[in-house]
Specification:
Length: 462
């Protein structure tokens, strides 16, 4: 039996695992990372990156469809969804090679296989039987798409985002179950390519975790784009009829039958905790996820967990940030724990949606007296110039302290505004601080200064 000693073992090479491996190497640790699939994990290979590539292709299609708005006359054009898929896979492969280079550059050993913890400082890797030991272990195994009862993902007619990112043809008609970011991004892609799209959401609104005003504005945009949706709805029954799926949908008690070529499940994720040996070691779980403290520590000395496997906030940038906190804790550097209210959440639809902090409803439930500031993109010169003036930005501000409790934006490329919003909230800046910062003209970022002014009752351009 081959036994190899390291300072740190990382299980999983997604955006949390591979980044923490690099940070650990910078701190002088001898690091090994075990990954059963490809470096970069789901985000790089089957999620964030390829889906954003397809969304860009979809936006080009939409621009061509509305070329006359820009003074360009196009008699006809054709689309090739298969070519868009190839482009997305090319981008993925380029980035995976980049991660491979970073592993070599930082002298991080990468082992392909399934890892199982046999003791708090010992890991066995299958199928080669190699044994690894280290004082500390970080679990970064991520999560996978969930199925619903009676709607098991089979990879053919009932698919997850992973299979969707490999289809060379647009499914038509297609039903998407789940109206959070993943579901609505695929709705945007498929509708842009002309598919008949229906979204089924159990909760009362599309993007149900967003501020209600944002969700309502988003629903108007989806109706305009031709995306059909049912909210407060659920799938009662599903039958496979040849190459089609027949769904019985209940919407507020009213039954409806819908047929689709494919059904895309987008109802969230479940942590990958199986076959890791956690039960044997007594690692505590909470609602199926690994329970950790603010620094990524589990209840077992020397074992840490980061990313989607903890379900703190299942986003790629959260996994990366959690990883840095965990490894710097191991190194004795006393890092600041994450404040999840300061972390942006992004949906890359058309229009885009971005938010952080409390919604208006959540803020009112705290009992605090609040100010609401709003500014529409139709009053922003850059938005009008690029022909994308739907949406608005909204601030929720504590009236007594001047603290920005929440920021919610729907409009063109608004995910690119989250850096300023996150910095402002992390640094405890007030609306006055943001309003006094000079924003270049014409830019979309001007809406941040304008909404800051509006939240203080000093709006200028509305």
């Amino acid at each position: 039996m081959s036994i190899s000693e390291f300072d740190l073992i990382i299980i999983g090479a997604g955006p949390g695992g591979y980044l923490v491996a690099i940070r650990a190497a910078q701190l002088g640790f001898r690091v090994v990372i075990v990954e059963r699939d490809r470096l970069g994990g789901v985000c790089l290979n089957w999620g964030c990156i390829p889906s954003k590539s397809l969304l860009k292709s979809a936006s080009v299609v939409e621009i061509l469809q509305h070329a006359s708005d820009f003074g360009v006359q196009i008699q006809s054009f054709s689309v090739d969804f298969g070519a868009a898929i190839v482009r997305s896979r090319t981008i993925v492969n380029k980035l995976v090679k980049g991660v491979e280079f970073l592993m070599k550059k930082n002298k991080i050993e990468v082992i392909k296989g399934e890892a199982t913890l046999t003791t708090p400082n010992r890991v066995e890797v299958k199928p080669d039987g190699r044994v690894l030991t280290a004082k500390n272990i970080i679990i970064a195994t991520g999560a996978r798409r969930r199925s619903l009862s009676g709607l098991t993902i089979d990879g053919k007619q009932v698919i997850s985002s992973r299979e969707a990112l490999e289809l060379s043809e647009v499914p038509n008609p297609v039903v998407i179950v789940g109206a959070s970011a993943v579901g609505m991004e695929f709705a945007t892609i498929y509708r842009s390519y002309g598919a008949d799209v229906t979204v089924i959401e159990m909760l009362p609104h599309l993007l149900p975790k967003e501020d209600e005003e944002v969700s309502l504005e988003f629903e108007k945009a989806m109706k305009k784009a031709g995306v059909k949706f049912r909210v407060s709805a659920k799938v009662v029954q599903a039958k496979r009829l040849g190459d089609r799926i027949q769904l019985e949908i209940s919407t507020n008690g009213e039954m409806e039958r819908i047929h689709a070529q494919r059904l895309l499940m987008a109802v969230g994720v479940q942590p990958n905790v199986e076959n890791l040996g956690l039960e044997r070691l007594g690692v505590e779980l909470e609602r199926g996820a690994i329970k950790v403290n603010d620094y990524g520590r589990t209840n077992v000395l020397g074992i840490y967990a980061i990313g989607d496997v903890t379900m703190k906030l299942p986003l790629a940038h959260v996994a990366s940030a959690q990883g840095v906190v965990a490894v710097e804790t191991i190194a004795g550097k006393e890092p600041h724990p994450l404040d999840y209210n300061n972390i942006p959440r992004c949906t890359y639809t058309r229009p885009q949606v971005a938010s952080l902090g409390l919604t208006e409803t959540q803020a009112r439930e705290t009992g605090r007296e609040i100010y609401i500031g709003k500014f529409p993109f139709r009053a922003n010169g850059k938005a009008l110039a690029i022909n994308e003036s739907e949406g608005f930005v909204k601030f929720i501000v504590d009236k007594k302290r001047g603290e920005i409790l929440g920021a919610h934006v729907i409009g063109p490329d608004v995910t690119e505004l989250t850096g300023e919003l996150s910095l402002a909230k992390s640094a405890e800046l007030t609306p006055m601080d943001l309003a006094h910062a000079v924003h270049a003209h014409p830019t979309l970022t001007e809406v941040i200064a304008e909404v800051a002014l509006d939240s203080m009752g000093q709006a200028i351009q509305v």
